[in-house]
């Protein structure tokens, strides 16, 4: 491993945050102390809000929705706020990246790149705010004219996870705001800082009070109360399939709130013998190691044509050992720390299970001693049976399982042999092969001869048990609207009672 050269110092003491309701900062709650996953030292103190705090935030979001201070603005005015927020984010990029690294453990260079993407999300959403429109029917006869309006859904609850705290937030917040909705956000308790910093940014950009509120605390208390809340009109949840399912029950048992769910994945990376092998090797090494594999679209199942499998796995193992794992504050680091103790245990548990079930450990499988943090080497298992746990469960860590196929039908069948359908990738120089696979594999995001490419124009979301609805792009704004049809009659009514 390369020598560690820190480019930023750790904070001298943990930074204390308040929570944000109705345009004002509040405090006075017990505090959750967050330790940096990469260093093991306290970095932030986050309020443990109560359900009463949540109720006040929902009430503020409701008032701000009903008083039309946001929904009643023109698209151009909403776009103005979003563009100012983008400019402020650009100025504060390094600071936001720093807090993201301290709470999440991802490499600083990667965090900066993610914030660039967040800025692009705000700019994209500003464009959609101006172009969002409905439809009209001029075909209903001379006496009737039909308008189809898109109206904002109302108060949106937003529950985000700890793996991409700011990126996932910004793939949602600007698009929700573009629609005219108001927001109560609840970040994961372990990564709340940057969601709170966004409140400062939006206030400075001119967002009216009550439109964006942040209530911090645990998922079991605040998240569950949001899912059950009778005055939240829509809930956008990103996280585990198990909690996603509990949100569906809570929505059904409360007010039938609309749901957007982005859940787990077990994503196939399919390589045909005619692919550019070196590119595919590099891409899958990246796809499984990026964000330490704590990534819903990580390439966790390699499905490689048998004739090239041995050569492919050997090249891949060699590349995986050269990934620079280290201190997340080091500019050279490619893979940082595992975000939580619980996730560390989960990943190590799956590695042990893979060995127990008889898969061959080709490389990795070990923990690394770096500073006071939690680190796991990128891991490759070959000879993985399709019924093994490591083949079926979302590990959410840098653990790749390799499967072999002989025909295109078999490749498609293995790829679809999962309850999930979040993302997939195919590698082939043959356009017929690539297009056939992209049409037949059931996944919400598909990459041909690339991986994790995209921009805020492209919608995100899953098939099957990977979720409901789409985020980002035009679709991501429309998701937060509901359709109203307006019928306008001309001339005199033909009376029913003569
Ligand atoms: P969770 O689904 O528990 O957490 C995701 C978010 O939901 C967090 O903000 C969490 O808050 C909140 N939450 C927790 N419980 C509830 C609840 N009952 N009602 C409403 N919200 C709740 O994921 P974990 O952190 O436990 O991770 C477990 C597994 O989930 C991972 O191993 C991975 O497989 C998957 N996962 C998938 C993600 C994805 O992007 N698709 C993201 C994260 C996890 P808090 O953290 O404060 O408890």
From TrEMBL:
Belongs to the aldehyde dehydrogenase family. One of its GO terms (molecular function) is oxidoreductase activity, acting on the aldehyde or oxo group of donors, NAD or NADP as acceptor. It comes from the Bacteria. PROSITE patterns: ALDEHYDE_DEHYDR_GLU (PS00687). Residues 32-486 form the Aldehyde dehydrogenase domain. Pfam families: Aldedh. Coiled coil: none annotated. The keyword Oxidoreductase applies. This is Aldehyde dehydrogenase family protein. InterPro entries: Ald_DH/histidinol_DH, Ald_DH_C, Ald_DH_CS_GLU, Ald_DH_N, Aldehyde_DH_dom. The keyword Oxidoreductase applies. Keywords: Oxidoreductase. The active site is at 262.
């Amino acid at each position: 491993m390369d020598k560690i050269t820190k480019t930023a110092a750790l904070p001298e003491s943990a930074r204390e945050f308040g929570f944000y309701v109705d345009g004002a900062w509040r405090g006075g709650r017990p505090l959750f102390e967050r330790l940096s996953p990469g260093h093991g030292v306290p970095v932030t103190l986050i309020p443990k809000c109560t359900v009463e705090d949540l109720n006040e935030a929902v009430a503020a979001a409701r008032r701000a929705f009903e008083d039309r201070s946001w929904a009643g603005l023109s698209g151009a005015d909403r776009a103005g706020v979003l563009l100012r927020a983008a400019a402020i984010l650009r100025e504060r990029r390094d600071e936001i990246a720093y807090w993201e690294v301290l709470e999440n453990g991802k490499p600083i260079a990667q965090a900066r790149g993610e914030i660039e993407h967040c800025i692009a999300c705000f700019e994209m959403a500003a464009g959609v705010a101006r172009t969002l429109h409905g439809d009209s029917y001029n075909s209903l006869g001379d006496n009737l004219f039909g308008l189809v309006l898109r109206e904002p859904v109302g108060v949106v609850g937003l529950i985000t996870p700890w793996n991409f705290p700011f990126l996932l937030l910004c793939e949602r917040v600007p698009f929700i705001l573009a629609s005219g909705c108001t927001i109560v956000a609840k970040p994961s308790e372990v990564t709340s800082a940057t969601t709170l910093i966004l409140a400062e940014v939006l206030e400075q950009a001119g967002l009216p009070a009550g439109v964006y509120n942040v209530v911090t605390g645990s998922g079991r208390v605040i998240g569950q109360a949001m899912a059950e809340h009778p005055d939240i009109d829509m809930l956008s949840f990103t996280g585990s399939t198990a909690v996603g399912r509990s949100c569906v029950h809570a929505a059904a048992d409360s007010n039938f709130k609309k749901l957007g769910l982005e859940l787990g994945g077990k994503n196939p990376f399919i390589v045909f013998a005619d692919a550019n092998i070196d590119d595919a090797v590099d891409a899958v090494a990246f796809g499984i190691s990026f964000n330490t594999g704590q990534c819903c679209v990580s390439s966790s199942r390699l499905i490689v044509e048998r004739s090239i499998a041995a050569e492919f796995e050997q090249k891949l193992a060699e590349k995986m050992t050269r990934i620079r794992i280290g201190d997340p504050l080091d500019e050279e680091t490619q893979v940082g720390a595992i975000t939580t103790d619980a996730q560390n245990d989960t990943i190590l548990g799956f590695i042990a299970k893979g060995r127990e079930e008889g898969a061959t450990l080709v490389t990795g499988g070990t923990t690394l001693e770096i500073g006071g943090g939690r680190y796991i080497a990128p891991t490759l298992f070959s000879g993985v049976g399709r019924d093994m746990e490591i083949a079926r469960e979302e590990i959410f860590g840098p653990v790749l399982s390799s499967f072999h196929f002989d025909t295109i039908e078999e490749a498609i069948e293995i790829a679809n042999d999962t309850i999930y359908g979040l993302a997939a990738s195919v590698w082939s120089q043959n356009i017929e092969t690539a297009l056939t696979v992209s049409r037949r594999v059931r996944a919400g995001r598909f990459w041909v001869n690339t991986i994790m490419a995209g921009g805020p124009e492209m919608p995100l979301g899953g098939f099957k048990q990977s979720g409901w609805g789409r985020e980002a792009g035009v679709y991501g704004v429309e998701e937060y609207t509901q359709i109203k049809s307006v019928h306008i009659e001309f001339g005199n009514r033909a009376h029913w009672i003569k």
